[in-house]
Design goal:
This protein is mainly α. It has 18 helices and 2 strands. The protein has helices at about 1-15, 20-30, 35-50, 60-70, 80-100, 110-115, 115-125, 130-135, 140-170, 175-205, 210-245, 255-260, 265-270, 275-290, 295-305, 310-330, 335, 340-344, and strands at about 100-105, 105. It has a two-stranded antiparallel sheet with strand order 1-2. Strand 1 and strand 2 form a beta hairpin. The two termini are about 15 Å apart.
Length: about 350
């Protein structure tokens, strides 16, 4: 609980409720004279709104726990916006692209502030944490590495989103299960992996004088990074199942059907029952027109349930998470042993 409070304090420090001269001097680095408080507020207000609504914060928590488990203490805390702000930025853009009307129990950001402001503010929320990295007092060689990591992972994140958009816009496009796994690893798994890798390198930066520590850090980053990626994919699968069963807090049950989302349960169903493609397309089209209240939403969910694919997808998600837990526990000790239980 104490770690979450520390993370929240870091996030609040970079997104204050009332931007002033000190905040602009820190964030805009020399542009404070060209930007008024009103303009700054318009730029960050939507992003701050979403961040302030909460969320599980499990990615920055993972980063902090990895760093501490490897002897780095709180060294990674100043870098936690690199994953949490980017995650929230992706949600703002995702809701706009999917025409979603709700996020974390409130209207989606583009509905409250306008699509133009949501696009611009979401993009800014991606780039804002680079100011955190710029202010980080780590060794220059580690800072350079983290800049490169951030750029690479942001490209992966957007590629995964592009794959997802392509599939749900065109119902005739039916990815195979390997393609779906790749999309999840890019869209959802990469931020989890980035969190673990940054945690490893933040800890290693504290021991920068030891070549052996640097070599060990690269090996740990690969092992823990893959475990975190599997964790992210498993988390995404369980989220998709919950959307079609119990519903996700802050969203409407079945809104993935409205979006035409090719989630794992839908793909399992269609690959085994290709004769059901017309039926599924009809349900998606009706849901897109009438929203979650369309009877076809429950009709499709009922079919998925009877086919057993909801349970099968859930089992796959939990298997990935269990595998990740074993690796995290083995390499991270007691600090990471119970981490996965907090987020599932």
């Amino acid at each position: 609980m104490q770690r979450i409070e520390k993370i929240e304090a870091v996030l609040r420090d970079w997104l204050p409720e009332k931007p002033g001269a000190a905040w602009m001097a820190k964030v805009f680095r020399g542009l404070e004279n060209a930007v008024s408080p009103a303009q700054a507020r318009a730029l960050i207000e939507g992003g701050w709104d979403l961040v302030n609504r909460g969320g599980k914060r499990w990615r920055p928590l993972l980063m902090a726990l990895v760093c501490e488990s490897l002897g780095g203490g709180d060294a990674s805390l100043p870098l936690t916006p690199l994953v949490e702000f980017c995650h929230n930025a992706s949600l703002i853009h995702d809701d706009l692209e999917d025409n979603s009307d709700e996020r974390r129990g409130k209207p989606a950001i583009h509905l409250l502030y306008g699509s133009d402001t949501a696009i611009n503010g979401g993009a800014f929320l991606y780039f804002l944490p680079l100011a955190c990295l710029e202010a980080w007092e780590g060794p220059p060689e580690w800072k350079d590495m983290m800049y490169r990591l951030w750029g690479g992972y942001m490209r992966r994140l957007h590629l995964g989103q592009s794959m997802d958009i392509t599939w749900h816009r065109d119902f005739s496009s039916l990815p195979n299960l390997d393609e779906y796994d790749r999309m999840c690893r890019l869209k959802t798994g990469c931020l989890a992996r980035l969190a673990a890798v940054l945690g490893v390198y933040a800890a290693a930066a504290c021991q920068t004088g030891s070549p052996a520590a640097q070599k060990t850090a690269h090996a740990a980053a690969e092992t823990l990074g893959l475990a975190a990626e599997n964790l992210g994919v498993g988390f995404q699968i369980l989220d998709d199942v919950k959307n079609l069963t119990t519903g996700i807090p802050g969203k409407k049950r079945g809104d993935d059907v409205v979006e035409g989302k090719k989630s794992l349960p839908v793909l399992l169903y269609l690959h085994r029952r290709p004769e059901k493609r017309d039926f599924t397309a009809r349900c998606f089209q009706a849901a897109r027109k009438a929203g979650t209240q369309a009877p076809e939403v429950e009709e499709l969910i009922g079919e998925l349930d009877r086919a057993g694919v909801l349970q099968e997808a859930e089992e796959q998600g939990r298997t990935l998470i269990l595998e990740a837990k074993k690796i995290l526990s083995a390499d991270g000790g007691d600090l990471l042993a119970g981490f996965t239980d907090l987020i599932v």
